[in-house]
Amino acid sequence: MTKKLLVVEDSKPIASVIKKIGESLGYEVTIAISLSEVEDLLQGENEFFAATIDYALPDAEHGEAIETVLSHGIPGVVMTGKMDEVTRKKILAQPVIDYIPKENSQAFMYLKRILYWQVANTGTGVLVVDDSRAARNHIVELLKRRNFTVYIADGGDAALDVIKKNNNIKMVITDLEMPGMDGISLTNEIRKLYSRDQMTVIGISGASNVTHSARFIKNGADDFLRKPFCPEEFYCRITQNIENLHNIEKIQKAANTDYLTELPNRRSFFSDGKQYISSYNGKNLPYGLAMLDIDFFKKVNDTYGHEAGDHILKVLALYMKKHLGNALLARLGGEEFAILLSGSDQEDIYNQLDEFRREISVSQFTHEENHISFTVSIGAVFNSTLGLEEQMNQADVALYSAKENGRNQIVVSE
Length: 414
Prior knowledge:
Blueprint: E1 4-8, H1 12-24, E2 28-32, H2 35-43, E3 50-54, H3 64-70, E4 76-80, H4 85-92, E5 98-101, H5 105-120, E6 125-129, H6 133-145, E7 149-153, H7 156-165, E8 169-175, H8 183-193, E9 200-205, H9 212-218, E10 223-226, H10 231-256, H11 266-282, E11 287-294, H12 297-304, H13 306-323, E12 328-333, E13 336-342, H14 346-361, E14 365-367, E15 370-372, E16 376-382, H15 388-404, E17 410-412
Parallel strand pairs: 1-2, 1-3, 3-4, 4-5, 6-7, 6-8, 8-9, 9-10, 16-17
Antiparallel strand pairs: 11-13, 11-16, 12-13, 14-15
């Protein structure tokens, strides 16, 4: 569902820039140039996901539009040309997402980051650990403005229980001084379970000891905040750490994903396949490993061109996800794919593979003005006690037999 962004801005050039930013992020943008327009808009049924609010408007020179927008439950980012401390404190005293001084082009780059994460944070869990209810509530309120899913714990032991029960937690914000397990001990325990690639930890403390930040980081924390902190610094640190975690995830995904089909690549299949097999064996589940190859794929490329060949590879990957979605799938290279799947018994697994093969054989795929048909050959091995590499070799031999015996068939390794 498209998110709606309300842009309250009387400057046409600035409103145009913000609109382009919003639309580039997938927002549906509505512009209002005065407080009266805002009031008229909010009388209707428009459900705005977020708003950018100019501090000074022709009919609202002292930030009146901020309160109006926020009173309708719309999270707002304030844009202001006023830099004095009184204005800053007045803005931050209200439950805004953030405020951005209109100093230069970097202000709009920062706005783009905020609007992006306002959507991307949805579903991302953050755990707040503090024995002080007031301190917890303050941080929780700040995080909810940024659309995080927030969990709380009043101590280290309780925090570990919450983490184990909620796999969407990507960040832990923990106080140092707590009865029982303190924040540094908790950080150390978290790092035994999760690496920095998997979870971010931010330590906080109101103590004046300057060594606490170093102790936190030496024990596995990613950042540190000293209480009391201002919302601006808090949001900057939170955003930066979430971005770092997100960038690591993107790099890892790129390293383990085939760029064309978006299936796992060979490297990922070898890594994850061993875990799947171990899980199947541990649960005593029948499973099969199959190697799949497109028949006469060179002919497709030679007849219709390499773009058509790439299209066929993408389509095949989509069909694999649709019909074998519970399996571990991978593109090993070229027109060769791997499938690792479980079933109620060997016959069930065979039937899953054969139904997929038959579906491909009777389908016709369109690329530009061409209608292309193709088939696949499959070699499979079932319930083998050998390692993954040996099973793949066996399935590959069976695949070769399927090719030699006429293609468009499954051959099971003995």
